Amino acid sequence: MSQTRRLFVCTNQKSGVGDDVAKALKKELKIQGLKKLFTGGEKQRVRVQTCNCLDLCKQCKKGPGAALIVYPEGTVYGNVRPNDAAAIVEDHLGRDRVVKRLLLEE
């Protein structure tokens, strides 16, 4: 059975940083070889998808980064910048460890 993990990235910022974060995440998935992988004997795909709004601006404190949610676990990150993509892919997706410095408490 195949499972898909999705990273929804908010692109509603005036700076366009959400689009840059999405591109950086896709690039890191390729570089680290985690776009398709096997975990626990199951095939897993990772998709990066942009969305207009995640309704997290107050929690992000309108910082210079983007908000993103990782599904199916529902982990919410805030103020994510393109240079944070490597840590999210390596730690969260590769090692199942939350990147605490970017974590948003809802």
Automatic annotation (TrEMBL):
This is (2Fe-2S) ferredoxin domain-containing protein. It comes from Hymenobacter aranciens. It comes from the Bacteria.
